[in-house]
Amino acid sequence: MRKLKKAPDHVPGPAEEAALRVYFERGSKSAIEASWWKILGVVSMAVVALQSAGLIYMITTKEVHVIQVTKNDSGELQASGVASKFTPDEDSQMAWASSFASDLTEITPAIWQRNVERVQRRAVGTSIDQVKSYLQKPENNPPQQLARYPTYVREYVRRSVNKVADMTYLIRYELVSRSAPSVPPQTKSYAMTVTLAVIGHKTQDDVFRNPEGLAVTNFSISEDFR
């Protein structure tokens, strides 16, 4: 029978050469893996940068389109399609002006802070200083009135809204003040002339916060003795 050759129990060649080969192979593998992770990191950073740039571009170029609904002579509502510049009709302007007067003058413990924030958001130009001056007066300052009378309530009661000029309206209203329960209310009549401007919408939040896209440029208040 033919004898099988016995497998060698060692690697042919000098042991030092084998050790060097293993050492350099491991070093090459580590270098390749390190280079691979660097490349992967650079690619990931580039992808993130491109995504960020795309997101910024979308945000800065986003447009808000408003569909304007108007009322015709017969009282029916009609949609006029997408308006590039939204301009509310006269009825909407009158209602908006009355709402501004209500937010400015009413005082209630529950929602006075919301009213002040809404008024400040809807004021531009000179009216910003006018709102600040009005609310600083002791009789018109909600925190001072509520600190003095914790249950104090001042209600806004609209009497009439009339057009004075283009985007300018005269609002006649009453303020009914109740300092405490069972105390007779005090009623005073006022007239407010308010001038509006169309500021439009820049973001989706603007549409929800101020659908009409209006703002007050200036106003004046006087007692109405009629």
From TrEMBL:
<protein>
    <submittedName>
        <fullName>Type IV secretion system protein</fullName>
    </submittedName>
</protein>
<dbReference type="InterPro" id="IPR032710">
    <property type="entry name" value="NTF2-like_dom_sf"/>
</dbReference>
<dbReference type="GO" id="GO:0016020">
    <property type="term" value="C:membrane"/>
</dbReference>
<keyword id="KW-0812">Transmembrane</keyword>
<keyword id="KW-1133">Transmembrane helix</keyword>
<keyword id="KW-0472">Membrane</keyword>
<feature type="domain" description="Bacterial virulence protein VirB8">
    <location>
        <begin position="19"/>
        <end position="224"/>
    </location>
</feature>
<dbReference type="Pfam" id="PF04335">
    <property type="entry name" value="VirB8"/>
</dbReference>
<dbReference type="InterPro" id="IPR035658">
    <property type="entry name" value="TrbF"/>
</dbReference>
<feature type="transmembrane region" description="Helical">
    <location>
        <begin position="36"/>
        <end position="59"/>
    </location>
</feature>
<dbReference type="InterPro" id="IPR007430">
    <property type="entry name" value="VirB8"/>
</dbReference>
